[in-house]
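Sample pair:
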Amino acid sequence: MTTEIVPRTPTTLAPAEGVSAEALAAGWLLGFGNPHTRGAYARDLRQWAEWCDGFGVELLDVGRAHLEAWARVLEEAGRAPATVARKLAAVAGFYAYAAEEGAIARNPAAHVRRPRVGDDSPTLGLDREEARRLLDVAAEAGPRDRALVALLLYNGLRVSEACSADAGDLDTERGHRVLRVTRKRGRREAVPLAPPTVEALDAYLAGRSSGPLLEANDGGRLDRHDAGRIVRRLTRAAGIGKAITPHSLRHTAVTLALDAGVPLRDVQDLAGHADPRTTRRYDRARQSLDRHGTYALAGFLA
């Protein structure tokens, strides 16, 4: 039976064992240093709380069956398997924290079945010629747009990493120009900048060494929504008919680096992937057959 995800009344998280669910959620979310990760998990948890509220179920009194039902509702609503899996992972993380804090006896989400996410990355990227056209159009559009596209396409940065960086995060290390970015889970990392990126940033900043690295039109910090609009505008100007987002440019950076012969381990470093299996998903998605092991094996046996 299909059920809409609509709360019956405004959500209030109920207390259990003398600890409120609000306090538990706040404590759990504090463990995530990256504000964008924290915000995404907070939205997932809020949606789950609204679903529970709509059915009169207290957030800290749910069982595995409730989570299984919610997962099916999300699937029936047309959510992608990766989205459903991420939401379930967020909720499971919250309940694991609640169990560790002694607010509940066990984690009801521990054994909930999650959708199987395919081995291939479904994100649409650009081919080599399209990437070149986009870089040319961005250079003509202006220094800020050129700098944004360079960071996304040459360095494969997440849009949150590019937008949260400050001008003061630019540095020199062992002869390399680097940008110190905040990766997932709050990890700080110095990423080297290729000459075209250095040139784009120097032209854009024009000596400025403080404030946001990338500024919005009003002088404030460029956010991911601004960046998305810029990428869509530039994509249209480049005559590219694909639905391209900032994450598509990150995908492009990974796949083109692999096409350029960069070893998988180095591409993992480029993308800032903590798990090499994530990079492998991009590699499989290339649908490139010329590197298949059967050719090397046939040559070896011959």
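The beta strands are 15-16, 19-20, 170-173, 176-182, 188-192.
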